[in-house]
Structure formats: C-alpha cells, structure tokens
Amino acid sequence: MTSAPVSSATDRPIGPVTVEADYDPALSRWLWLVKWLLALPHYLVLALLFVGFAVVWVIALFAILFTARFPRVLFDYNLGVLRWAWRVTYYTYGSLGTDRYPPFTLGPAPDYPARLDIAYPQRLSRGLVLVKWWLLVLPQALLVSMMVGGTSWAGGVAGLLVFYAGVALLFTGGYPRGMYDFNVGLHRYAARVTAYSALMTDVYPPFRLDQGGREPARTAL
Predict the structure, then answer these.
(1) pTM for the full predicted model
(2) Reduced to 3 states, what is the DSSP secondary structure of residue 52?
C-alpha cells in the first residue's frame, strides 16, 4: 500500500522537511532477524556516501557564507544520501517498517514505503551558517541522541521500540500501530534536526513530535 506525499493545492507540509511512511500490517514474523545481513551492501554504500556528504557539507558552508546559496547539485546529492539512509533505516533496525528491499538510488523512489524530501531553499542566511550547526542545534541534537541514538537512526528510544516490535512480530505477526506511529515520529523529528544541522534549511526544527506515517498539513486559506 503506497500513498502519495502531501502535495495538493490546499494541503501543504508545515515545514521544509517531509518524512512519510506506509504502515504494513502484513510483515514477516522472522525476516527482521536476518535484515542485518541482507542490508550489508547498503551499509557499505552508505559509508562511502556519507564521506561525500561530509565533503559537500564543508563546501556548502563556504558557498552559503559567500553566496547565500547551497549549490543545487550538491544539495541534491546530500538530499539523496538522506533519502537512501531513511529507506535503509525504515527497512532495518531503525523502524522494521517494511519488508520491501530498499532500492540502490539517490533519487526520490516515490513508490517505496519510506520517503523523505527537503524543499530547496533559494537563499540561506550567511550569518546563521556560522552558528546553527554547532550552537543553535545543540539542544535539538541532545534530544535526537536520546530519541534515535545520534546519527545512527537506530538507537535510543527508537531502538527500544524496534526491539519490542520485533518481539511482537515474532510471536503475534503484527506490528503494534501505536508503537509504529511513535517510532516514525521520532525519525521525523531527527530528520528535521539533521536537515538543519546539514545547512539545508534555515527553518529551526520545532520542539514537536508529529507521529504517524503522514506529515501534518496546513490548509491554505
């Protein structure tokens, strides 16, 4: 079951970061036990991609400082890395939300049950770029470390939820919906903080946990 992200003329995402997922009520009881092995190729590729992500971050910092813009081709690369990471996180031990194997692509993959997008900013603050990634984001980063285990997206409270979800799948064949909604909400919060610290937006992440597979939307007047 796949649903399109919020994109109608009247319903718009509240912020620039969109994280959505499709709940699957028919997950395998046992597949989660071997996903660490199945996902090894993705882990290896992501390790290399995140090296490039760090290099792009440094280049973007100076580009924003002098031009107030995040070069679009570099922005798209880092967005692609975050998309890839979210799909692998959702498949593996960050969420266990799907049994569909993640595609090897930096693109949006709109038919996959885990989707992430960040609106491209036409201009970014030259002053904020000097402080937002280490000072302004600090309280948010501390919360993220407790929620999802820092940059791994597979620890903290989310990791505990996934452990209990795996046990539930093994013995009942079902993923408790409330547990699922809470887990996705934690990752949504982490993605907003990651986008901010990655210099991809100047919109400060709200101290708000939006649970469930769909982004909250605002209705245009």
Answers:
(1) 0.91
(2) helix
